[in-house]
Amino acid sequence: MKRKAVCLLSGGLDSTTCLYMARREDYEVTALVVNYGQSHSREIKSAREICTDLDLPFWVVPLTLPWGGSALLDPHLLIPMGRDEKMMQKEIPATYVPARNTIFLSLAASLAEVLGAESIFIGANAIDYSGYPDCRPDYLAAYERMIKFGTKQGFNGKKLKIEAPLLRLSKRTIILLAASLKVPFEKTWSCYQGKEMPCGDCDACRIRQKGFQEAGLEDPLIYYAASPNV
Hints:
By secondary structure, this protein is α/β, with parallel strands linked by helices. It has helices spanning about 15-25, 40-55, 85-90, 100-115, 135-150, 150-155, 170-180, 205-215, and strands at about 5-10, 30-35, 60, 120, 160-165.
C-alpha cells in the first residue's frame, strides 16, 4: 500500500515542484488548494489545471479573512513593485498574509487525519528574499511538534510529518529541480497580480525571473522583455 500525503498547492512554482517531488517519492498525493479571498483567482486556476492534468484528487477550500492585513487581501494596500534584493531583505513585505501558513497547515493536518496520510508537503522556502516568518525551519519544526500533541493521529503515536523539501534551496536550484521533474512551468503562476500575463515587476515575478536567468533557462510563461536587476 502506498504512503499517503497531502500537498498544499497554490498553483505557484514552488508548491507545484513540491507536488511533483511527492509523486516522485511514490506517495499517493491529495492536493489542498486554499482560496482565501486573495485579490485574484489566477493561481487557483493554475492549481486546478495542474491537478486535472495529473488526474490527481484535490480539494479547493474557500476561506474568508475579512480583517485583511495584507496587500493580497486589501485593495487599499499597495503591492510592492520594482524592489531589488536589498530592498526585499529589509522588512516583511505588505504581501505577507497574517498567520497564513498556520491556517493552511491546520487545514492540511485535518485532511491528512481523515485520509490517514503520514506527510504534509509544503513549498516553503527560507532563503527567498520575501522574508515571511512562517517559512522558517524553526516555525515548521514547532508546528510539527504541535500536530503531535493536538491530533488523534499524534495521540495514537502515528507521526504526521511536515515535508518542506525546498526550504533551503535557491530559486535557481528549485527551477533546475523542477525542470528535471518535468514541471509544466507554463501552467504555474507566481505573479501577485491577476492579469492575463505576469506583471514582471512585483517581488514574486522578479525573484522568479532571476531564478530562471541564473538557471540558464527560459520561462515559457514570460513573453515580455523585462530585465529586473534583482
